[in-house]
């Protein structure tokens, strides 16, 4: 999972319990030290070079699961590749790892489909009921009426226009490609079109026919002739003069024919010039930002490259009223959707690299990029509700207790992902309430730094400590680590509890006080419960008007004090 980078898309989808268990597992694996030594073990699943072969492994699993049930012949007698047979067995037994089943195991928080909002992602939904699946089966023409349950698929009769030989394998092939399409969309972020899925089915149909060693019977061609598989290519359509909606005109005069030829030539030249112009303009746009994405070369194709003119139109010419809170961020509207356009001077390769490598629901998403006259413009996800600091300290509204707890939970999730589930791990280095966007997304990852392998959370040298960390033990020396993020998180917890800014004017009206120092002094209690209640009530935000559970508030306060401990080793990890 770590070597292929699956955790980037997998971890954000896990429940808090599953993330905690995965974190503990990674801690165990991190403590394991292996040494190279000759492996004398032999296994039937290894080839002559000692490499694992999945074929024998799947066949062993298939043999272990054979049974005299009505579906056994449909699965194990199909002749499909072993992994597809085992996939079909999981489907018929209701054990496929769809979100509905994962939610029952508390691996994810809800079982809703990621592509069909409000609909449970069951096996039937993926393979039969999803609009994509319905259109897939319609194009193939395999079923006049789709089965109501995937467990009934083995009872379906072969339609007249589908070759009866190996029909069960053909059915498994189609389901296998629907499942692969779903997984590629989630884990590779590649959403294949219907045409691509049908083309993949067609190619596998030919390969499987050779597998059955009956290609001389024409089964591969019969399979490929089913429904949408048989759609003629563009070349064959042109060759046979059967392009949809057009007919060749036979009886035309020589004069009109020449006119058509000349007109067609003019249109062709015009279109060719437009294509070259668009290509030249696109190449110029990509070349302008290519140095910026050198660290994120694999993601340049997924980012939209904008021109300065396009961003100017989206921000009303970078109008002052579009500026967000006096910052270098502007609200933009692109294709009817709101984005934040952030102007950055200097080297932004670090920020682009981090934003392109992380993928979490609690981290801000990079959508596009533009370079213009030495400045870089990052097109980011827009948070309509603004920053946490502005809401807590700007007087724009009041967060209730439930909202504050949710913000704390989301910030915890985002930092835990950066520290423990990215490869390499990242230190945010710039965490403060001004960079927590509601709904609780972490922004300003420009200062994030990858930790060296094997540091285990021990600090790496930063170029400069952020002013938000001034006064924090260790920040004066430029030493940054995950524990610095933990300290900053503790400060945010104290802000959520008290409603005060991290640095505020003291009661004498002249000196300034640090919130974490006031909290450490004010809530170090040696008395009983009554005194603890009184001290905590004095510290809490009066705008809450006492509408919070004392026990939970006390627990949050105790956690915050642990996070802002002067000794970094005394602070908990974000996983804790």
Automatic annotation (TrEMBL):
Q: Which domain of life, per UniProt?
A: Eukaryota
Query: Coiled coil located at which positions?
Result: none
The family database entries (PROSITE patterns) matched by this protein are listed as: PROTEIN_KINASE_DOM (PS50011)
Q: Where is the Protein kinase domain?
A: 305-576
Q: Which GO terms describe its molecular function?
A: ATP binding; protein kinase activity
Q: Which Pfam families match?
A: PK_Tyr_Ser-Thr, zf-RVT
What protein am I looking at? Protein kinase domain-containing protein
